[in-house]
Amino acid sequence: MAEGGAGEPPPPPRAPLERLVLKNAAEHHYLRVSLEFPDGGVRLNAAHFKQLVVSALKELHGEVGAALPVDVLTYDEKTLSAILRVSSSGFVKLWSALTLLGSYQNRKCAFRVVQTSPFLLALSGNSRELVLD
Amino acid sequence: MSAPLRRLRETPRHLLVCERSHVRHERSRHAARVRGHAYNCRVSFLIPECGVLPEPLKSVTTDMGEYYLVKNLPLHELVAQEFISAFVKTGSCYALSYNTRIDQDNTAALLPTDCHSPLKHIGKLILSVDKDTYEELGLQGRPSRYSGKKIMRYIITIDLTDSAFHSDSKKYKRVLWALRDKKPLEFDFLLSWHHTGADGSTLMSYFSKHQIQAHQPKITFSTLRNLQCPVLCSNELQGKPEESCSAQELFEWLGAVFSNVELDNKSFSFVSTYCCPEPSTMMDQAYLCTITGFILPEKIIQLLDQLCAYFDDPKLAQWVTLTVHGFADSPVSWRENEHGFQKGGENLYNFVVFRSLDYWLQMAVGANDDCPP
């Protein structure tokens, strides 16, 4: 196939029938997070988990932050890991709020942000988790 | 709005390119797109209304090719004339350093000789190294496009099949000296070799002095029951209200399916408000297959061909999808386009093949990437 290389004339047009380039068009951003308790033994259901995320937002960004629409798309009670969806304009707010959260019901905890992407599909294939041997 | 507040609302750059064409169209470039994306860590396909895979599709799926992991391979082994003439010049040889993170470590990759464009895309070794390594190596390179004002990362490209790169040339001696004596670099490499008629195990015997393991791609199958699927119309890439969903909506929905997200939430649900895009239909079952490993574009083309052949017989499915995830830490995404890892390192593409063999191709990249071809 003719592919353009450096310093060569552009290949003859072999355009597809239709091509759309969407730049920064994602409405949402996605984060794969897990919640860690150093002492362990804390059980949370999905609603409590969401409540914790909202309270983290409220703590750092006030009522405006708490009003940010965040969805808990998946949640695993055993590993306390979740996939969160947030509108793109609230992505930085959510990430910062999660990072600065330090406790849940007077017990120390921390959110680990494992992977983030503007594409939910990207979260289902993380090459950094490819473990051989 | 003040500047700091505005910055709080900004997100890293990202691109989604959507294309529409027909598999048999003479100007269709679907094969070139697949071939141009060299390093793939996961391939998944979804077939609605399918319970059992047809035999040809199944055999392609289970034969995605062996790949090898070589531990602590000195980089100069990949520029040895013996290696170049045995593998790089005779077939498509792919190598990518394993467990190296491109935002902090040195990374190396070997791009294969592309027999379809012998002049333009030829066996190249690409190194993405930090400033200190670059200065110690003493090889010519260029600053990384994504390293900012203060350059901390360099890209070195070595053309292995260049006519001036033979064992007596100054260039060759310099490269060998740099990689063997000046700054010996070692990586764990993922390796694979595609050559019609030859067995990949030749690689195994060639590197038998090193610690080498053969790996088979991991395959998982699952049947999803009662799946809500968006309605698609092949001519409407951007969708039509009340009639069909857009390529973007499909892309998100597919991500939701792969991550086992609930698709039937209510808009007032506290935990999640995500629902399947409308209009949608309920499907009794759908077949999802995921293959993980170091997967060559040649094998993906075979899989894509078989997915197109799925529609040779009448089928209930209106469309099938094929999703390919690239390596987040590879130094290139498509062809020789530089790739970096800013927030996620995503480089992936997805085909939707319709019953009429019209297809949509979606290519997505993150912040440190060129626009896909």
Automatic annotation (TrEMBL), chain A:
<dbReference type="GO" id="GO:0001682">
    <property type="term" value="P:tRNA 5'-leader removal"/>
</dbReference>
<dbReference type="Pfam" id="PF01900">
    <property type="entry name" value="RNase_P_Rpp14"/>
</dbReference>
<comment type="similarity">
    <text>Belongs to the eukaryotic/archaeal RNase P protein component 2 family.</text>
</comment>
<keyword id="KW-0819">tRNA processing</keyword>
<dbReference type="GO" id="GO:0030681">
    <property type="term" value="C:multimeric ribonuclease P complex"/>
</dbReference>
<dbReference type="InterPro" id="IPR038085">
    <property type="entry name" value="Rnp2-like_sf"/>
</dbReference>
<protein>
    <submittedName>
        <fullName>Ribonuclease P protein subunit p14</fullName>
    </submittedName>
</protein>
<dbReference type="InterPro" id="IPR002759">
    <property type="entry name" value="Pop5/Rpp14/Rnp2-like"/>
</dbReference>
<dbReference type="GO" id="GO:0033204">
    <property type="term" value="F:ribonuclease P RNA binding"/>
</dbReference>
<dbReference type="GO" id="GO:0005730">
    <property type="term" value="C:nucleolus"/>
</dbReference>
Automatic annotation (TrEMBL), chain B:
<dbReference type="GO" id="GO:0004526">
    <property type="term" value="F:ribonuclease P activity"/>
</dbReference>
<dbReference type="InterPro" id="IPR013893">
    <property type="entry name" value="RNase_P_Rpp40"/>
</dbReference>
<dbReference type="GO" id="GO:0000172">
    <property type="term" value="C:ribonuclease MRP complex"/>
</dbReference>
<dbReference type="GO" id="GO:0000447">
    <property type="term" value="P:endonucleolytic cleavage in ITS1 to separate SSU-rRNA from 5.8S rRNA and LSU-rRNA from tricistronic rRNA transcript (SSU-rRNA, 5.8S rRNA, LSU-rRNA)"/>
</dbReference>
<dbReference type="GO" id="GO:0000171">
    <property type="term" value="F:ribonuclease MRP activity"/>
</dbReference>
<dbReference type="GO" id="GO:0001682">
    <property type="term" value="P:tRNA 5'-leader removal"/>
</dbReference>
<dbReference type="Pfam" id="PF08584">
    <property type="entry name" value="Ribonuc_P_40"/>
</dbReference>
<protein>
    <submittedName>
        <fullName>Ribonuclease P protein subunit p40 isoform B</fullName>
    </submittedName>
</protein>
<dbReference type="GO" id="GO:0030681">
    <property type="term" value="C:multimeric ribonuclease P complex"/>
</dbReference>
